[in-house]
Amino acid sequence: MKIAFRADASVQIGTGHVMRCLTLATEMYRRGHTCCFVCRDLPGHLSQMIGDAGFDLSVLPAPAADFKADDNDPDHAAWAGVPWELDAEQTLAAAQDVDWLVVDHYAFDARWEAAARCQGAKLAAIDDLADRPHIADLLLDQNLGRRSSEYDDLLPQKAERLIGPNYALLRPEFAALREAALAGRAERGNKVKTVLVSMGGVDLENATGAVLNVIGAQSDLSITVVMGANAPSLDLVQAQAAACSGRVEVIVNTSDMAGLMTDADLAVGAAGGTSLERCALGLPSLVAVLAQNQVEAAAALSIAGAAIEIGSPQSSEFPARLADALKHTQVFGNLNTLSLAAASVTDGRGVARVADALEYPLGLRSVTMDDAVAIWHWRRALPISHFRTQATPSLREHLSWFLEALGDARRRFYVVGDPSIAHLRLDLDDTGHAAVSIILAPDARGKGFGLRLLSLLASSGRAEGLSALVAEVHSENTASISLFRACGYVETGLVDGFYGFKLTL
């Protein structure tokens, strides 16, 4: 496949959009696909980094200084620097004959998406805000606390949704170092000795300086500061660090963020994409809010117990909040509690799951009698103990049941994929609930489709106006139990060897 990425980096936008697209592009390249980038020439762009990574790059012309977005454009439309119509035209010219167009840009909505992709291409939108319509075939929102239902009125019903930190676009080294990082924290105990400060690639309004004003004078801490080469405050921070008697090291454009996080006892950082990197390594964090789009992320991390929110570095309350949070982590047991909660947010393997979604789009269609025999064979290949009904039906019995079930107005039958990889079913009741059933084709098992299939069922349930989905899973089916938990289902009890699960829609 050929995949084009449309994302920008700048002093205003930051570097995160391009960085996570680079992570996904690197994984797709590793799998044998061709990737290219389309970026606008903005102050602080990352064109050299993209080229150094080995990807073709089309640089769109620098914008005019007097651009002003229309009132009906997205809230961040000014970030594009040009009208969306012009950007879409330029993107279309630069990204011809692609199989996927991946857009990661707050400035664009469904109008741009309709105009920018070439004929025959699928479109994937990466979003964090849920504040504008999309016409994407696939939508990724990796943020903790985001609910799929927030996109119900913003996406076509058939679009696949990858929602939550299970799909976070983290570089593979975070998953690779996860086990060692968690073991190291357990061995080192609850003492804070090393602190990692990372306030985003461009360090908005010298947030790093505000942090060092509070913790730089503490002689018992060894501090590592990570900054981008384009950060306007870099010289100021380096001078500030030099006055701290050698206890503060400033690293510019590090290539080993995962290693630095593994070695640190505590992080002070922005509530952006790096917050999920810290979670993957179980790194306790104090999170600052550097932009409006980080408010929800910081709150979600705090609610999950994975971090302590310390507010905006520009606030008069920031020094006291940071100092209090640091004291909290030095109370015995608190650091370990934060670490365990952070590690439960994501396992760091999201990029592989998103790459799978690009390679294997999951189209959903209603079943027909032509699917009945294949589904019978799939069911027979599963252990009998996984089903409430222990007897295996004959093919004749199955076909008779299937024909009757197709005419039942309270049942929804689906087949996923082309060729088919799964059978999904919703059995509706009179309370607004529906029982979930999934049967995977034998060749599709163990390949990570479960999260995506449950997400498709949740979308279908919401489209039906249901209030909840329920499921029963055999107590020995540990893989399915973990899957339902990961998808937000809550256990409702254990009856006759089967766990009950419920997902409120």
From TrEMBL:
<dbReference type="GO" id="GO:0016757">
    <property type="term" value="F:glycosyltransferase activity"/>
</dbReference>
<dbReference type="GO" id="GO:0008781">
    <property type="term" value="F:N-acylneuraminate cytidylyltransferase activity"/>
</dbReference>
<dbReference type="InterPro" id="IPR000182">
    <property type="entry name" value="GNAT_dom"/>
</dbReference>
<dbReference type="InterPro" id="IPR020023">
    <property type="entry name" value="PseG"/>
</dbReference>
<dbReference type="GO" id="GO:0016747">
    <property type="term" value="F:acyltransferase activity, transferring groups other than amino-acyl groups"/>
</dbReference>
<dbReference type="Pfam" id="PF00583">
    <property type="entry name" value="Acetyltransf_1"/>
</dbReference>
<dbReference type="InterPro" id="IPR016181">
    <property type="entry name" value="Acyl_CoA_acyltransferase"/>
</dbReference>
<keyword id="KW-0548">Nucleotidyltransferase</keyword>
<keyword id="KW-0808">Transferase</keyword>
<protein>
    <submittedName>
        <fullName>Pseudaminic acid cytidylyltransferase</fullName>
        <ecNumber>2.7.7.43</ecNumber>
    </submittedName>
</protein>
